[in-house]
Amino acid sequence: MLKYLRMNPSRRRHTPLLKSLFIILAAIFLFSGTTAIWAITLPVPDIDNYFQQISKGDTTKIYDRTGKVLLYNLSGIYRRTEVPLNQISQYVKDGSIAIEDEEFYNHNGIRPTAILRALFVDTMTGSKKQGASTITQQVIKNTVLSAEKTWTRKIKEAILAIKLERSMSKDQILELYLNEIPYGGNIYGIEEAANTFFDKKAADLNLVESAYLAAIPQAPTTYSPYGSHLDLLEARKNLVLDKMATLGYITKDEALKAKTEKATFAPASTRGLNAPHFVFFVKDYLEQKYGDAASVEKMGLKVYTTLDFSLQEKAETIVKKYAEENDAKYKASNAAMVAIDPKTGQILAMVGSRDYFDIAHEGNFNVATAHRQPGSSFKPFVYATAFNMGYTPDTVLFDLPTEFNPSCPADSEKNKTAECYMPVNYDGKYEGPLTLRNALAQSRNIPAVKLLYLVGVDNALTTARNFGITGLKDKNTYGLTLVLGGGEVSLLEMTNAYGVFANDGVYHPYTGILKVVDKTGKTLEEYQEQGQQVIANDSARKVSSILSDNTARIPAYGANSPLYFPGRDVAAKTGTTNDYRDTWILGYSPNLVVGAWAGNNNNSPIDKKVAGFVVAPMWGEFMRQVLPSLPNEKFIAPDPTDQNLKPILRGIWQDGGQGIHSILYWINKNNPLGPAPFNPRSDQQFNNWEYAIQKWLSTQNSNSTILPPTTDNGFIPSSSPLMVVITSPISNTTFKNTDDITVRLNIKGGSYPVAKTEFYLNQNIIKTAKNNFTSLTFGLAELTGVKDKNELKVIVYDQKGTQVQDVVNFSVTTASSTPTD
Prior knowledge:
By secondary structure, this protein is an alpha+beta fold.
């Protein structure tokens, strides 16, 4: 048998497995024994001495960029008033247990299943972010342990929690928890929080107030009622109420009623707090990177920020002044401003409202980081995309009333369905042929929508994202409205994105941090150059050239607008949403980019005034105060337009021989630098764009020099086959029975000259012309056989007898039944 066992291959294969299993079990027993001995001998720290110790200890401080101005001491002098459990509202006790530890009265300090789940998730993700802490563990974590995120600390936390449960009753632990839990800044404990946020004692808090205070401790900065995430605070407060109802602390009806009630928060304290919106922006960042609020506050960090305090003070003063004026003039009660160094992405000033401490106007809300619709201030990203693809500032688009839904009629501006889309310009006027320079400088909407179609929504979104705009997600949400500000973006990201134009196409992520040093003097992080070329420098230069061209924008803004700075190179773009809820201005010199917003936090519309009236004066005053202190740098001029480009890209839209057409006649939008499309009508927008142009042409003086010649310059043999396209009239157009119709042809290709062209209406020939005949006008009243629905056919023959044809259909109504504009 022994011989058999020794020789049995299967037995030999299992021997290493058994040995490994034995080693693992031995290691587990050894670890368990060691842990048990360690746990037995581990002393419970003196929790009562906690606040005495930390009041002397290292607190985290936030400074400006010079390190001389203390913006905020995150801990400061700890504000904490201890109260017994029987002097705390029952709603607070129930709400805190419901949201933090619903099994509080049933466990012995830890929840093993929660710990195992957290261990599994952290192991799988490689993080240490899964929460598994009971209220007892939170007491230990917030009082006697360090902020390190290690499993050793978590094991200590669990063991100490068990020992604490053995030495204190549940009510004593809950009392300790509610008296020491951080509520943000230097506010600790429920009594201090009740006094700070509601000017009440903890015993007098009602259900709604208690739910808010139970919601805050998980992330005091994020859920601060004086912060920028009030929507998140509201959602978590409602979650507290739902949990309380589920656990039977309140009824469902009480929860529903409480969700509709709004608490009135007391004004925020101004003690020891400078540049508050920026400070809490930085504090958010620190908590995301280094741990929760309680941990960050007692780490003893010295945080040197990018803030230029002198600029910050100017910005705060100017924003407050103009917001109060705009409130009286235009019913725009709030405003915000951001200033950034475009060469580094460093935030120099951030003002999130007219006054952080003005609770009546929701001053604590940081509009600079909120997402709002940008109006026309989004247009430069589309133009930059176009310039990168080969379009030039000289390229001409037609600013004319145009229907952009191919499924909607091109010839009627009335009786359209909701799906139809015919945008208008801010002044209700249309300029006809317009260069891209003038179209952007004067913020004309129709050319901008056409340009977005030409470059493609995907490409425009890619440009915006490369410029640091993160809020724009699904392209189907916006469509062609994207260029008019149909998406939502933040002032902070928009300001930084405009910095790409100022910085010759180089993008720097925005940052508020220069350096973070720990209490031992070790540098934890420091600003590093992260510039990345995200668009061709000449494309950025073209945008800057246009946005700083005072002559080009005079028709829209006048010669001496707040956008004009004699002797300085300053580019600027305004934006107003079509419902007058948001007004924007983004502007820059080569060494400073400043963005400003004015409106109402609650999205209510202001009086119908565009950004040039509402927000531009505020921005202009800040720039006029700051620019003299900066070097007078100049924009680099873009390259001149390449004269080898096709004529339409160089702005020659009156090119003879084939009539006047939309750019889609000359350009394949998927390859604008390539050959012209063989059949322009295959583009879904061609008919509607062409209709608008032909309608406009019909209103022009027939002797005007804009009209093209109707014969070409002679035959040039081609290797491509003969083809004819009817470019006018547009298919499915409706005419009156008294109208004249002009037929225009595009005849291309062929190895032999054209011999004749035949024109048919409803199969009846109406004209035969010799040679290359490309234009024919006839009156409907002069013809017989005209119907409600008609077919126009053209047949072209070359000298060898080859024939090609094209067909369009059109409708005819009597003059009296045609709807009027």
